[in-house]
Each structure stands twice: as structure tokens, then as C-alpha cells.
Amino acid sequence: MGMRLPAWFLLLSAALCLPSLAQQVPTERVTVVPTAAGFSLWLPGEATTRDQIAVLGVVNRFSKTWALLVGGRPALPDPLVVPAGPDLRKGAFASLWRQASAALEPAEQAGVQEALRYLVLDDAAPVLDPLTEAVEGGHVDQIPLVSPLLYVFLRESVREPGFLPLALPPGPEGGRLAEALAAWGVPPETLRNRYAAWLLSKALELRLIRRSQAQLPAVWVLDSDLAPGQTEVWRFGLDDGEAGLDLECVGNSSPGLRLLAIFTDEAGRPAHASVWEAGDGPAVLPRKGPDLWLFLWNAGDQARGAGLTLTLWKESRPPFTALQATWSGTACEVLLEERAGVYDYEVVPLGDALQPDAPRLTFASVGEGLNRYHVRAEAELPAASEVRVTCRTLAGGTYSSVLPLTHLVQP
């Protein structure tokens, strides 16, 4: 039979517990804000309605971005305490990170944290230093596995959200990233090209690259080799009404030398980017903005490029002119006047009665000249009044033209 404890002992024990219980209760007034995720936020009592909305925005963006980058929702307590301070948004971010980061390996935490600061708080500081180092050091093609640049690049460049949790964090020596690329059928070289184009576009957006505007036509001769990873850059202006420009590359265009074209808008923001091998043929660049930044990039492992000559000139003619289109049943015929430098075409029927899954026809260009293409769709075409013909040039540019269907026979 157990010994009964005296009442005074029980009272003493309860009194001794009171200080520890008091430590879990805020000593100051708090503002309790519920979240859509089911947990509450405890903000300082003086938090205004604007503060509450701002903090809720940080919580929502943090949770969504975490799910995209890492997968799943972050593990957060109920309530989540946001400490008092001059910037409640930053305080909320610190509390969110302190709780969620426990799910990551120590080696992964710095890159994820800095990427989240950029993506959630719109704080450019975490990417400025590594971006500047990459551009100034000529390492535009070396994808950094422990840097926030990898996370920000994939978040801004990959449209398939299911890919990111498979690839991130990238794992030791990028093993998880490599496995995800293989599973999705993306060659590492393609990712490398896209990363280089993104990095230089981001550097232009953040004003890390500055050049005075040169005039067209222009001729450059590279008087010395480019080291591996090194780039040369030029900037040209295009006037309104100009269709674009043409580029011819002559000389030492051995594999590894690539050209990156980035058009920027009136505010200097990148609007279109493309990458192609130097020497692949005439480059046609339809105008995608008032400024063109052209980078010559040595993506190989050896110095090369000395003696390469690049000639650019404005071109008022579009890459192609659509002259005629007919569609009967599943058969489509398109007559095009083409210039050199077009890679392929896509034809899409247009009309009020068409469904979103209307047939889209693609075919390769046969080259410069007047060409008639006969292509066949997998399904018959419903009522259509016109077609949109879009070309993709060898330099990665795109140009579209809408053409009325001059002859249509209903089945």
C-alpha cells in the first residue's frame, strides 16, 4: 500500500511548478492572428492591421516557397511567436526559419536560407555577392551546388513544380539534382546553357553589367582567345519598327564557343534570352526589346576564339513571310517566303469555335527561299478562320504571323 503524501507537500510541489509554467505564457500583451494553415501567430500587442497583413504574407510565401523548393509543408508550431522589433516581416521570417530549418542537413541550410530571403522577403543581398563573383570571375556556366543561386535559378526557370522537390537540395556532389535531370530527360548541357543565360540575365536585371550602347552595323574581331568560362559582351540598340538583326560568325568557331543574346525592355529588365553555338549558320534575331546584349561565351575547357569575326546588321525584313494557308480535313498546306537562319515552325489554327486542344503542327525549315509545306494533323480541324505561324530561329528567337485561311473544305 503506497504512502499518502501530506497536503502541504502537494501544495509546495504545485508552487514550485508555477515559475516554469509562467515562462510559457507571454508576459506582454499579444495579438493573435489565425493562419490558413491552421496555426496561430502571436504578434506583439501593438501590431497594426497592416503589420498583421504583412506578416501573413511572409508566412504564406514562406510556406509555398518551401513546398516548391524542398517539398511538403514546413513543420511549424502552434502558436508561432513573432518577436517585437522594427521589422515584423523579418522577425516572422526568422521565427519561420528557426522552426523549419531543423528538417534540413546542416550543409544545406545556408543555401536554402539565403534563397528564401531573396524569394520571400525580396531581399537581393543574398544573391548579389555570388552573382557578382560569378560574372566578374568568368564562371557563368559553373552551377554552384551550395549557393542560393541554384535554388533561385531553378525556382525562376523551371515551370514544372514537381521537378524542384526531386532535385533540391541537390545532395552530395549534386547527386539528387543529376538523378532528377535524368528522370526528366534533361541533358546536363541543357541545364548548363539555361543557367548561364539566367545568370547573365539576372546580372543585367540587377545592373551588375554596364556597357555603353554601340551602333549597328558593327564588326568585331576577337584578337585573343577567351579562357574557359570567360565572356565578352556588347550592347546594341534597336529602334521601334525594326524587325530585328542578323549576325554572321566567321573564323575560329570550334565547339564550345557560344553566343547568348538577351533583349531588355525600356526599364532594363530582361525580356528574352537565347543561346546557340557560334558558327551554326546565319543568326536571325527578331526584335524582343529596345536593347540587345550579346555575349560571346567560351563554354569549353580550352582557350579559344582568337580571330573570330562577328558581323551584325539591322534587318527590317522578318525571318519569314506567310503567303498562303489552306486546311482540308487533316491536311494543312502553308506557303512561306523564308530567309536563312530559321530552324522550325509551328502552325496553330485560330477561331472562336476551336477548343484549347486544337491541333498544333510543327515542322523543320528546309532553308532559304519560297517553300511550300504539306503537313498532316492527327485529328480533323473544326471551324477555323485563320492560322498563326510561328518560327524559331537557329539563334533561339521567335517570330509569329497570323494568316487567313484562304481555302477550307469542311469534311
Describe the structure.
The chain is 29% helix and 29% strand. By secondary structure, it is α+β, with helices and mostly antiparallel strands. It folds into 4 domains: 29-103, no CATH class; 125-205, no CATH class; 218-315, Sandwich (Jelly Rolls), CATH 2.60.120.380; 320-409, Immunoglobulin-like. The strands form 5 sheets. Strands 4-11-6-9 form a 4-stranded antiparallel beta sheet, with no helix packed on it. A 4-stranded antiparallel beta sheet has the order 5-10-7-8, covered by helices on one side. A 4-stranded mixed beta sheet has the order 16-13-12-19, with no helix packed on it. α2 (49-69) packs parallel to α3 (88-100) and α3 (88-100) runs antiparallel to α4. The longest helix is centred in the N-terminal third of the chain and has 21 residues, at 49-69. Mean pLDDT is 85; it is low at 5-25.
